């Protein structure tokens, strides 16, 4: 038997921060495929049963027995269909073939939900979402989840990409910005030479310049590991509580 010999404190998570959605294996049908950028497609699936999940979570998609990949939901569980953003990786084992052969009407198995980097609602802290690449999907889900739940938290959304041809999703960001006064967004392009109205530089540098402190904030990060790691270091340096930083790095899996 273990016996405590000194005083200790036990942190109990807020009830609203604990999610217990049942894991499900569903059958999905592809209802649409849309090219978003030169290397990202958006697919929507209609499942045979609803998938309950919290904004920011992901699912395992099985396109074939040897083609399984985790992808974050870009929408909310009350949406009619599940939306996923898929980056086509040159030379990959799965996604190049997917880009060539996936068709509307194809069947896809869906297993989930998974992930702990989901939206926390039981607080009034400002929310910062930093996305890179297809990390846009879970960050969009988090932002929509907060706004459409009626939270009054300020929501700041930063989307970092390499070039202007990597930008997508402006229509939905504009819609949210027009509809919710507590939402704002900024697109950041890291490669110099792109003449546009977007911010120039690394997304972490722009965020660093825009805010003095992240004390008592909730931070959500998703994208390439170097970006996620740099962003996490930045917000902690600016007084964010590490326990309030929720991050999913998108590690390469030979896609």
From TrEMBL:
InterPro entries: Cbr1-like_FAD-bd_dom, FAD-bd_FR_type, FNR_nucleotide-bd, MRET, OxRdtase_FAD/NAD-bd, Riboflavin_synthase-like_b-brl. Residues 23-120 form the FAD-binding FR-type domain. Its cofactor is [2Fe-2S] cluster. GO terms for molecular function: oxidoreductase activity. It comes from the Bacteria. This is Ferredoxin oxidoreductase protein. The lineage of its organism: Bacteria, Pseudomonadati, Pseudomonadota, Gammaproteobacteria, Alteromonadales.
